[in-house]
């Protein structure tokens, strides 16, 4: 099973719903170690993405991802807009003109997006950033691709890795962004941006599983 452009649109549209629902939780996390705007940033950004998606719904995956990235970049202030924007723009470049994505393609675009974020944010492993979840997700998908796992199973494995990685951000001391100003006081809190990465991947897994269930029936 592959990821189609239609599923990509469904995924990003659903992300807008999820970020509307999770806005307060994300804000709460960011209030503990940041400035309390992460929920609003993600909600506002993905609302704009959802508004833009119908105009590119019949285009290829690269255009859908690039439009998402440009929209996040231009509509979200702070660190996370440019960072998530970069993720989607780099992912779009890696998607090139592919009409659909195999698991190997998905692993490749997520790896490209992750590398783009890490480069832009100068994030290192253990800095307590969204990259601390992006890296394990891209690694898990790449391993699953070499094992030829079905896409839905690979995404389930990636979610397990993402959940563990998100929990692992709790004892980390932040070394990037506003949270780093807290020094040791940033220890003991889950990273908001990393939480958003899990939400996005979880949403993708749900979209893929729903379509693989309906294709079986
Ligand atoms: N240099 C960085 N590299 C990667 N991710 C980062 C970096 N700085 C911050 N982040 C991520 O951004 C999240 C905060 O996003 P938010 O929407 O609150 O923007 P912000 O308030 O401008 O960020 P910050 O206060 O961290 O600079 C963090 O939880 C972290 O995951
Ligand atoms: Mg913030």
TrEMBL record:
InterPro entries recorded: DhaK_L_YcgS (IPR012737), DhaL_dom (IPR004007), DhaL_dom_sf (IPR036117), Dihydroxyacetone_Kinase (IPR050861)
A GO biological process held by the record: glycerol catabolic process
Enzyme class, UniProt record, top EC level: transferase
Assigned GO CC terms: cytosol
Superkingdom classification of source: Bacteria
SUPFAM superfamilies in UniProt: DhaL-like
A Pfam family this chain is assigned to: Dak2
GO molecular function, one term: phosphoenolpyruvate-glycerone phosphotransferase activity
Annotated keywords: Kinase, Pyruvate, Transferase
PROSITE patterns: DHAL
UniProt EC number: 2.7.-.-, 2.7.1.121, 2.7.1.29
Statement: the UniProt record of this protein carries the keyword Ion transport: no
KW Transferase (keyword) present: yes
Gene3D superfamilies to which the protein is assigned, alphabetical: 1.25.40.340
UniProt name for this protein: Phosphoenolpyruvate-dihydroxyacetone phosphotransferase ADP-binding subunit
């Amino acid at each position: 099973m592959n990821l189609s452009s239609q599923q990509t649109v469904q995924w990003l549209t659903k992300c807008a719903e999820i970020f509307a629902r999770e806005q307060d939780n994300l804000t709460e996390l960011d209030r503990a170690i940041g400035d309390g705007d992460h929920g609003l940033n993600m909600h506002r950004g993905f609302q704009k993405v959802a508004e833009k998606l119908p105009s590119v719904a019949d285009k290829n995956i690269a255009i859908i991802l690039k439009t998402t990235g440009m929209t996040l970049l231009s509509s979200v202030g702070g660190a996370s807009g440019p960072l998530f924007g970069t993720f989607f723009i780099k992912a779009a470049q890696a998607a090139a003109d592919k009409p659909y994505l195999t698991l190997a393609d998905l692993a490749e675009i997520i790896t490209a997006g992750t590398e783009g974020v890490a480069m832009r944010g100068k994030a290192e492993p253990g800095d307590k950033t969204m990259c601390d979840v992006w890296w394990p997700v891209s690694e898990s998908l790449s391993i699953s691709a070499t094992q030829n796992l079905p896409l839905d199973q690979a995404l389930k494995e990636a979610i397990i890795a993402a959940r563990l990685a998100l929990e692992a951000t709790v004892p980390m001391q932040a070394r990037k962004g506003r949270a780093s100003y807290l020094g040791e006081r940033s220890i003991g809190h889950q990273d908001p941006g990393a939480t958003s990465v899990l939400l996005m991947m979880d949403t993708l897994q749900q979209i893929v599983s729903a379509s693989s269930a309906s294709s079986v029936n």
